[in-house]
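Researcher: I'd like a structural prediction for the single chain below. Treat it as a standalone chain; there are no partners to consider.
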Amino acid sequence: MRGRFVLVSLLAVELSVAACAEVVMKPLPYTHGETALEGYLTYDDAHKAKRPGVLVVHEWWGLNDFARREAEQLARLGYVALAIDMYGKGVTTSDPTEAGKLSGQFRGDPQLVRGRAAAGLNALIETGLVDAARVGAMGFCFGGMVVQQMAYGGLELKGVASFHGSLVPLPEADAPKVKAAVLILHGAADTLIPDEAIRAWQDAMRKTTIDWQFVSLGGAKHSFTNPASTSLGMQGVGYDERADRRAREMMRAFFAEVLGRGE
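Model: Treating it as a single chain, here is the predicted structure.
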């Protein structure tokens, strides 16, 4: 009876600890050169050992609630997630014209893109919460372009996933640097990405030995993962619940394969 009592008591303690565990959500200040940045760090404090980490790169709107929710969902899967900041602390917009200006500063400047994103990767590693050998990145629209450039720049990532991102053909000179597997989740009805861009991206990848996948989701438009996108009234842009669900299932399977499960 005493042994049974001890076992029951231990189980009660474990259940109590589990009940107290929660997803920690907090700002994480860091810098890139002289630019002050502030990411959003999330993790489940029930896990004490180092875990796989995932960077989340925002849409062209900046680090807003959509990107924060993405990080929180990853934390609930057991990953340490950091929604990184590409624009500067507190810089966000809901105006498409302003968003175009903010994202435009990175257009044609891959070194700026890679350097700014690398600062976020370093900030995540420096938390001491992650296994540095098991880190990935995912991005949406503008962020999808960013994670492609992170891979092309040879950052220490196991895998990158792009949701309805602008497509950047891999420069031939960068191919030997790529360490990450690449998953592209694309809306087949995304009129913002011309067929020529898809062909150029795939043709560049076919010349390499990189582990890549290009998934085209039928009927899905640009920004198909964001419920707020339909209200923008923009041609070729809109939310698609089915494509969103399927794409996320593919992303979870992808990270489970290349990073291991977040536990």
